[in-house]
Specification:
Elements (H helix, E strand, L loop, with lengths): L1 H34 L1 H17 L3 E9 L4 E10 L8 E15 L3 E18 L5 H7 L17 E4 L1 E4 L3 E6 L7 E4 L4 E4 L10 H22 L8 H6 L4 H28 L1
Parallel strand pairs: 4-5, 4-6, 4-7
Antiparallel strand pairs: 1-2, 2-3, 3-4, 6-9, 7-8
Helix pairs in contact: 2-4
């Protein structure tokens, strides 16, 4: 009986020790995850964005509040692709995100609001920096790597760009002056939204396409894309008919101004 009782007690102690160890590891891991959640999320966001855009993406600070369902980002920087002298294509001062469900395979962003966004458009005869990034987008980032894995799904309802300033530099211009213009606040509803969600790469690509298209379109309307090939404009997201229409409008305006000057000089 002594040996039997001792064996039972030893087994119970061993089981208790293993259970306690497992509980401690689980609890400790949970504490580690909770204490470092913002850092983990920051590294993950940088990784997804860098792999999708094909250029380095860096975040200075990210604070995730599971209690408030918010994410706050400070200092979001997107590097230029090779072949451009300036360091960054986009620098955003602050990003505020109101979240919904957040889990290992689901990221729900109800609204994303930026403030202090500087978008730098570098223009060459055959390319733009924003268009070059667009051409290399990888929309499959976040997909399941095997049949046993689950894909990461993003649901994003609204993006609002506040305080955005575009700075365009045409390398073909003789004076090499930068054109700076501030468009109206830009809102994109249901960005990357679908009933079942989309991959992180698809969501990031969707945002980049909208931003780059808006920047190039605005610069083109300001007459700052002169000398740029139609291929480069298409690569940046402008449609062929839109290119023809804008060029035609500018041609008509030039002719109208010329006739007006001619009549005015004749009257004098």
């Amino acid at each position: 009986h002594f040996y039997q009782t001792g064996f039972i007690m030893s087994t119970a102690k061993a089981a208790l020790t293993v259970t306690s160890l497992a509980t401690a590891m689980l609890f400790g891991g949970g504490i580690y995850l909770y204490m470092n959640f913002s850092s983990i999320a920051k590294n993950l966001a940088e990784d997804y964005a860098t792999r999708t855009l094909g250029v380095k993406v860096n975040i200075d600070q990210m604070q995730v509040s599971l209690k408030k369902n918010t994410i706050d980002i400070v200092g979001l920087k997107i590097d230029n692709p090779d072949g451009y002298s300036s360091a960054h294509a986009v620098v955003i001062e602050k990003v505020h995100i109101d979240t919904g469900a957040i889990g290992p395979q689901l990221l729900e962003f109800k609204s994303i609001t930026t403030s202090g966004a500087d978008i730098f458009l570098a223009i060459k005869s055959d390319a733009t920096n924003l268009g070059d990034i667009r051409k290399g987008l990888k929309e499959n980032i976040g997909a399941a790597e095997s049949e046993s894995d689950s894909a990461v799904v993003v649901i994003m309802d609204k993006l609002l760009l506040n305080g955005t300033v575009y700075t365009a530099r045409n390398t073909m211009a003789q004076d090499q002056e930068n054109l700076t213009f501030a468009p109206l606040p830009y809102s994109m509803d249901a960005a990357g939204h679908a009933s079942t969600g989309v991959l992180p790469g698809q969501a990031i690509s969707g945002i980049w396409k909208e931003i780059s298209e808006n920047a190039v379109r605005s610069a083109h309307e300001h007459g700052y894309m002169q000398g740029v090939s139609a291929i480069a404009l298409r690569d940046a997201g402008m449609g062929q008919m839109e290119i023809y229409k804008n060029d035609l409008d500018k041609g008509i305006d030039a002719v109208t101004d010329g006739l007006k000057d001619l009549f005015e000089s004749g009257e004098q």
